[in-house]
Amino acid sequence: MTQRRQHKLILVGNGGEGKTVFIQRLLRERFEKRYLPTPTNTRVYPIEFIRNDEPFVFNIWDIGGQSVLKDFTADYTGADCAIIMLSDNKNGVKTLKTFQNRINQYCGNIPTLILFNKCDLARTVENYDQLIQTENNVLLCSAKNEFQLESPFEKLMDMMHNN
Q1: Which of 69, 70, 96, 156 is surrounded by the fewest CB atoms within 10 Å?
Q2: Taking residues 87-104, what's their average pLDDT?
Q3: Could you tell me whether strands 112-116 and 81-86 are parallel, antiparallel, or unpaired per DSSP bridges?
């Protein structure tokens, strides 16, 4: 029997970027049009992928974007990888460095992706086009349309394997 590899993945970003919806769509839940902020308590969702016939589990820590004054130590400590989610929000790109610095402070140099959700919106594509000029490991997805939902995990598995 193959042992399941377990990895802690922190999913961070500003409020309203679609972090929770992204996870819900991975779990094949229905898309909800109304916005419900993630509660201040962090939720963990195990999602399994198969790589080279071996199970690979990401325990995704959905960290609410409204938790500005929260102590992130417990949420970030022990993370193996991270996704910083951005979208059409013009402040997202501005706060990217804050999230990158926080990840480095609490986790060290771990594999990190920048994931632009809501790629069906023009402003998201503009933000993406701007950022790929200066950043590596930037991907597009749409939780609403279920576009490229698994590609960030494939990329993270590659990055972790090469790390």
Answers
A1: 69
A2: 85
A3: parallel
